[in-house]
Amino acid sequence: MLLPNTWCILLFCLFTSLSPVIRATLNLTLPHQHPNPEAVVQEVQRRLNVSISRRQMLATNTTTTATINVELKDQMSCLTGNPIDDCWKCDPNWFNNRQHLADCAIGFGQGAVGGKGGQIYVVTDSSDHDTVNPTPGTLRHAVVQTEPLWIVFATNMMIKLKHELIVNSYKTIDGRGANVHITGGGCITLQYVSNVIITNIHVHHCVPSGNTQIRSSPTHVGFRGRSDGDGISIFGSRNLWIDHCDLSHCTDGLIDAIMGSTAITISNNYLSHHNEVMLLGHDDRYLPDTGMQITIAFNHFGEGLVQRMPRCRHGYFHVVNNDFTEWKMYAIGGSASPTINSQGNRYTAPSDPDSKEVTKRVDTDEGDWAGWNWRTDGDVMVNGAFFVPSGAGLSTQYAKASSVEPKSAVIVDQLTRGAGVMGGSRYIYLLAYILFFFWEN
């Protein structure tokens, strides 16, 4: 008897074998694809407007009130207008109410509940000695469990993986309150899972590994081929949220999402020192990725980046209020007619006069990409940067999204100032890794 995943693969293979005319008459959607992506975009802008208005109102009160309440002053210093951070970060008791974070996501991944409602699992052991029978108290032991878990860390940790860390559904990996580094073989794999939140984790120096047995659940151990060395690899998964992580120095992508993955938000991360940063979409011929929907918000694309921020295929990608401070080749690229909605970002071009363009249509003639829906709205172009929009039906395509105006890139500093892992200098953490590396070797 064929498993459900096998039936899906066979049906998609049949679909891709049909002629283009027949394919065009069919409506290929993923089961968890949002039917109206523009409505999701509009809700992101509404949430953003509410948070910024709240901050502005408090600022007005502090300047007009003679005696300023201490609590009001604390709120004013904490609120940034970033709707994710303002949802939880200003609560002085957030540590005792960690799972409230699951209520704070925006965009296509806002349905990711992670381990909400489950037990708190405290990682006390940073080792990764056995990928088949992981030691209780290790991160690997926590992520393979079947039940929802909210995973936290007893102390600062450097977790050097032997092989890829395969995460089961309904898990939150929450590094808030500790300095947690994940590095080594793999690193993090989300394959055919749902409802995973990863927050406040350093992920770096991930290298290919595999050709070994790895446990993925309490009842399943399987042989895994060689991994690519992605920081976070997403394969056929949905309802995911990656927030406030630092990602750098991996062999392949920092975050790659392929094979029909959808309902994903990537927010508040700091990405640096990497070539091919983010691949979203498996292959130009892989039509299930037309249902891929991803929000990329409030991230800082920092120093030492080259390209793919992101590189998209098919699907719908909302790139909103990010700060792009460096690229060598291009920032946003794509093929196979993806929809790219760029709103309120700041693009700072490199000094190279041949690399000023933000966008790149990969291996495609202008006659083919002229109809793709690529839009820039409220973006700020610095140092000669320029975005090449396209799409004959552009004004109609984005009418609903534009009904709530995107926040200008002028406030990008305010919205992204806390991007990456919270609680200290990333350079100190990188130095700690270097010392750890030499000590281990």
How many separate helices?
Answer: 11
Low-confidence stretches: 6-27, 396-403
Structural class: alpha/beta
Which strand order do you get reading across the main beta sheet?
1-2-5-8-13-16-20-24-27-30
Give the structure's gist in a few sentences:
With 441 residues, this protein is of the alpha/beta class.
Describe this structure in words.
The protein is of the alpha/beta class and 441 residues long. The chain has eleven helices and 31 strands. A ten-stranded parallel sheet has the order 1-2-5-8-13-16-20-24-27-30. Strands 3-6-9-14-17-21-25-28-31 form a nine-stranded parallel sheet. The radius of gyration is 22 Å and the shape is globular.
Summary keywords:
11 helices, ten-stranded parallel β-sheet, globular, nine-stranded parallel β-sheet, 441 residues
Secondary structure layout plus pairing:
Elements: H1 4-17, H2 20-24, H3 37-64, H4 70-78, H5 83-88, E1 119-123, H6 139-143, E2 149-153, E3 157-161, E4 165-166, E5 171-174, E6 180-185, E7 188-191, E8 194-199, E9 202-207, E10 212-217, E11 220-224, E12 232-235, E13 238-243, E14 246-248, E15 255-258, E16 262-267, E17 270-272, E18 274-276, E19 278-280, E20 293-297, E21 300-301, E22 305-307, E23 311-313, E24 316-320, E25 323-324, E26 332-335, E27 339-343, E28 346-348, E29 359-361, H7 366-369, E30 374-377, E31 380-382, H8 394-397, H9 399-402, H10 412-416, H11 426-440
Parallel strand pairs: 1-2, 2-5, 3-6, 4-7, 5-8, 6-9, 7-12, 8-13, 9-14, 12-15, 13-16, 14-17, 15-19, 16-20, 17-21, 18-22, 19-23, 20-24, 21-25, 23-26, 24-27, 25-28, 26-29, 27-30, 28-31
Antiparallel strand pairs: 10-11
